[in-house]
Design brief:
By secondary structure, this protein is mainly alpha-helical. It has 13 helices and five strands. The strands form two sheets. Strands 1-2-3 form a three-stranded antiparallel beta sheet, with no helix packed on it. A two-stranded antiparallel sheet has the order 4-5.
């Protein structure tokens, strides 16, 4: 063993790392580090029996890569994210003499094909229209309705939606104000750079008005603020919003039938506690991806979509624009013919 290294367990090294980064990154980013690194700690403790980071080698890192890929049945893009987080962690461990210098360079990243780099989950325009039509007719101005209405019309992130207060809504000017408030539990992913005014349609405003007037619980959060989205106990938690999205985006919920032919009476995914077992529902981020694609398909300029959804142009093109090449060609053709 290299005598310059100082013994430290994988779990202790991870906690030191997270503590060192907590004032540099947002809480959601820190949570992401924790989630990705916990699998490495599990491998060290339960699979490899490695209790000292000093003993980590390039060969062991390759063994972890193979184990993580197979244990989680991971897609290449997900595996890359896990390994990228580990690589940054190992490089930090080098700075505290926990592992040999240069060890992070021995992590061999997976080679991604173009289709591997793109997430596939999306709420497409037709499904969104059908879902919103159902909610507007049968669940008007309910909690799931206002959540889906705002998500689809604005394409905002889950954290941004949760951050909204009643005072952030301006019905007269048809807008929502997004503010970064980390000290009162509502940070935005991109910090102050994520702050912006978001325009609303008249229909979305009517839903928000009726939600506030008739169905919103008139409560404050732990900081005395009046959240837009509430339960009896205060501001909705991100997990509750996510669960509600999973529940109502099941095709059998809004009348489309089951795309994979399951009997709703026998399918456990029809029960609220088992919605995650549905193979056809979508996440809040899938709605964001669908909303961005829908805006682009409606010929909203990319720069406008980029500013409205708070996403860089390069990221928008690579990860969010799910228009087919045929659709893009026809839009370009229409633009040239109108010029």
């Amino acid at each position: 063993m290299n005598e310059t290294l100082e013994p430290i367990s994988p779990a202790e090294a991870k906690e030191m790392y997270l503590n060192a980064r907590k004032h540099e990154v947002s809480q959601s980013t820190l949570d992401g580090y924790h989630y990705r690194l916990k699998h490495f700690i599990r491998w060290c403790e339960n699979v490899e029996g490695l209790d000292d980071m000093n003993d980590l080698t390039g060969r062991k890192l390759q063994q972890f890569k193979t184990w993580r890929r197979d244990d989680g049945d991971l897609k290449p893009i997900t595996l890359e994210g896990n390994l990228d987080a580990l690589r940054v962690f190992i490089r930090w461990c080098e700075s505290i003499d926990a592992v040999p210098n240069g060890l992070h360079d021995k992590i061999v990243m997976p080679v991604l094909k173009k289709h591997d780099e793109q997430a596939n989950g999306i709420l497409d325009g037709e499904d969104a229209d059908e879902l919103l039509s159902y909610l507007r007719r049968f669940k008007y101005a309910s909690r799931p309705h206002v959540i889906l209405e705002i998500f689809w019309q604005t394409g905002m992130r889950l954290g941004a939606l949760r951050s909204l207060d009643v005072d952030d809504y301006d019905g007269e000017n048809k807008s929502l104000l997004l503010e970064h408030c980390p000290d009162t539990d509502t940070p935005l992913k991109n910090g102050e750079e994520g702050e912006r005014l978001v325009a609303l349609t008249a229909e979305t405003c009517r839903v928000i008005d009726d939600w506030i007037d008739h169905n919103r619980h008139d409560v404050t959060d732990n900081y005395g603020r009046e959240p837009m989205l509430t339960t009896e106990n205060g501001r909705m938690q991100a997990s509750s919003i996510r669960d509600m999205v999973y529940f109502v985006t099941r095709p059998c919920f809004y009348g489309s039938g089951c795309p994979v032919g399951r009997d709703p009476d026998e399918c456990e995914a029809t029960n609220y506690g088992h919605y995650s077992k549905c193979p056809s529902n979508v996440s809040p981020h899938d709605i964001r991806r669908g909303s961005i694609t829908h805006h682009l398909s409606e010929d909203v300029p990319e720069k406008v979509v980029s500013d409205r959804m708070n996403v860089g142009m390069d990221v928008l093109d690579k990860h969010y624009d799910k228009r087919s090449e045929q659709v893009k060609m026809e839009q370009r053709r229409a633009y040239l013919e109108d010029s």
